[in-house]
Amino acid sequence: xxxxLRRNTVQQSCGRRLxxxxxxxxRAILAVxxxxxxGLVAGCTTTGALIDPIEIGPFFEAKNFTGVPRLxxxxxxxxxxxxxxxPGASIETLAxxxxxxxxxxxxxERFEVxxxxxxxxxxxxxxxxxxxxxxLPKDFLxxxxxxxxxxAVMFVDITSLSTYQPLVIxxxxxxxxxxxxxxxAFDTLFSASNPAVANSARRFDRKRQPAxxxxxxxxxxxxxxxxxxxxxxxxAFATLPPR
Length: 243
What we know:
The chain has eight helices and seven strands; from the N terminus they run αααβββαβααβββαα. Helix 4 (91-108) crosses helix 8 (225-237) and helix 7 crosses helix 8 (225-237). By secondary structure, it is of the alpha/beta class. The relative contact order is 0.15. The longest helix is centred in the N-terminal third of the chain and has 26 residues, at 24-49. Strands 1, 2, 3, 4, 5, 6 and 7 form a seven-stranded mixed sheet that branches. The protein has one domain (64-237): 3-Layer(aba) Sandwich (Rossmann fold).
């Protein structure tokens, strides 16, 4: 009994000394645990910092548009005019956007699209392209209706353009019935310097053109005027009234 008491007393005394003066082994254990804890914290911080804004935003939402609640049932065919532009955009640049607008308008699947090229407009009206904001030639809408059997006309204007980084494209579009009524109008400036626009453009591009090689290729849309125009056109035509 006396021996047991003495042993407990010695053990308690050793415990107190270890608490006051931890051994080198104990200090090593504590150091390892501390490093591990710091690693976990650092890992969390690093992971948070590496989250791509394409996953969390902010994202751009077009708001500067207006239109009828629903497209008329009789509207089946729309003639797409050549892309027009304000001074500063070359004819070659505007022409390169024609296919972009056609592809995205067809992708919207609201109506059948036929194309009036600049040669046809020159023949009919002695003008290769027209801005939606300028006065139209006499009988313009009715002549297009006769020529193409179209129920409406789609105007597309480039109001601002920078093909250098950060990319900028101003897009104005109007859908006018051949009787003269405006069914839809859109006017928005897309700038890659706006984080919300950049995130939305990258997200759009990643969905449309998934990368086949390792690495993130979505940044390409912020360097390619044509791919950036794809995004802008798709965003615009997505606001067309439903059927």
